[in-house]
Write a sequence for this structure.
């Protein structure tokens, strides 16, 4: 074994770091798609970073594609069903999510399936009830799923997944509480720190998407078009929009024409905005089920550009795959992602 302080050890460390980086960002080339591989277990020869004398094992946050401390990523994710009723706003820690899915529910309203991993807040919420598409959305992430309850058939569907179910209606252990300052039923808050502590042995989430550089749509072959505003219509009740903030390099979110703020007073933002056109299955009466296993039209909006392509998902446990019109993988930039599941009965427009 090479000594940590020797030149041979430093050369070996640099080689390992470069090799790991090459594997993780192989998706940056046009003909070599990203291949997710498990993070290596750090050894006694942990590689030094910069001029620091303290060794540190580097990895990448699996749900963001950003560089991170390997040890800090070795915990499960928490997915939660988050309320988007007007009286549920502002939501707790929404800007600390890695990935958020917005989905249609009854009455033309929407709710979120939000996933936290790389930046775990102490509390999240307001937590609401489960819907029939949520097992298909949450299963690929593993870890935990938090929700307040739901129709028995939907709860049974979620409990049939491998995820650890954290359910307010069944909890008598103090994981959930009601916020006095919020009106019911938009007041259920999850103690995320305690949930993570109780389930720390669960595996970290696998990588879901292909990540490239900070401007992954720059290749002319992707035919990405300049975009300043994204407008999405779920229904007459819900029509979110996103505006590109070039100075901050993020998309800023609005709802029904007003800035969408989190509980810290900051406008909700995302590095990547993904728009998927989805069918709606009405087999459950008034409860719409977003069809997640299948394929459809998709747009990836990153760095003030938008590229068109398709999405596909082969099974409940499979990740979503995004493919450009030229057959290449559609890559995301390192950072957080919002996925808008816009029904085919709705509309999507992109303004230059």
């Amino acid at each position: 074994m090479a000594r940590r302080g020797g030149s041979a050890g430093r050369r070996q460390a640099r080689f390992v770091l470069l090799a790991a980086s090459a594997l993780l960002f192989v998706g940056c080339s046009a003909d070599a798609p990203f291949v997710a591989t498990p993070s290596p277990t750090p050894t006694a020869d942990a590689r030094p970073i910069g001029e620091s004398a303290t060794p540190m094992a580097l990895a990448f946050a699996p749900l963001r594609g950003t560089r991170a401390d390997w040890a800090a990523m070795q915990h499960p994710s928490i997915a939660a069903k988050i309320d988007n009723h007007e009286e549920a706003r502002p939501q707790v820690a929404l800007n600390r999510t890695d990935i958020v899915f917005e989905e249609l529910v009854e009455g033309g309203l929407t709710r979120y399936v939000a996933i936290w991993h790389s930046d775990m807040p102490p509390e999240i919420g307001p937590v609401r009830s489960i819907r029939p598409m949520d097992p298909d959305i949450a299963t690929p992430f593993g870890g935990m799923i938090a929700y307040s309850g739901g129709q028995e058939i939907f709860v049974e569907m979620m409990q049939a997944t491998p995820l650890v179910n954290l359910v307010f209606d069944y909890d008598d252990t103090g994981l959930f509480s009601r916020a006095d300052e919020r009106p019911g039923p938009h007041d259920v808050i999850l103690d995320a720190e305690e949930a993570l502590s109780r389930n720390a042995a669960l595996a970290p989430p696998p990588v879901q998407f292909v990540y490239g550089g900070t401007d992954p749509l720059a290749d002319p072959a992707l035919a990405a078009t300049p975009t300043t505003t994204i407008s999405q219509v779920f229904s007459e009740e819900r029509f979110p929009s996103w505006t590109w903030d070039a100075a901050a390099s993020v998309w800023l979110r609005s709802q029904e024409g007003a800035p969408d703020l989190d509980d810290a007073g900051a406008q909700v933002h995302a590095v990547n905005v993904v728009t998927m056109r989805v069918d709606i299955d009405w087999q459950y009466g008034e409860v719409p089920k977003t069809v997640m296993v299948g394929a459809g039209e998709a747009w990836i909006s990153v760095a003030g550009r938008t590229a068109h392509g398709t999405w596909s998902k082969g099974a409940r446990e499979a990740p979503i795959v995004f493919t450009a019109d030229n057959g290449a993988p559609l890559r995301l930039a390192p950072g957080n992602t919002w996925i808008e599941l816009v029904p085919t009965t709705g509309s999507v427009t992109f303004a230059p």
Notes: The first helix runs from residue 7 to 24. The longest strand covers residues 294-302.
